[in-house]
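FAQ

Q: What does a record look like?
A: Structure on top, sequence underneath. For example:
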């Protein structure tokens, strides 16, 4: 299943979009875990990079792009002060 999800992810990314696992899950269509694994695999291979971090349910998740450069740093946790 991952090759189908990866190819859909690369198709979305090549159009210039910045995607999260949720957007890939809707577009593929696939299970959220399959989208997560596909994006992490492509990131580990160096095919994509983390452009920014998006808050979803108060948790930061990576948004991926095909652009060159360094990954965006993960934001610090926002705990009680």
């Amino acid at each position: 299943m991952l090759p189908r999800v990866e190819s859909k992810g690369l198709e979305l990314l090549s159009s210039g979009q910045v995607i999260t696992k949720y957007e890939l899950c809707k577009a593929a269509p696939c299970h959220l875990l399959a989208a997560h694994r596909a994006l992490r695999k492509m990131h580990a291979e160096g095919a994509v990079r983390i452009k920014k971090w998006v808050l979803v349910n108060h948790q930061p998740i990576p948004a991926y792009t095909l652009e060159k450069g360094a990954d965006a740093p993960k934001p610090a946790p926002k705990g009680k002060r």
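Q: Is there anything notable about this one?
A: The longest helix spans residues 2-14.
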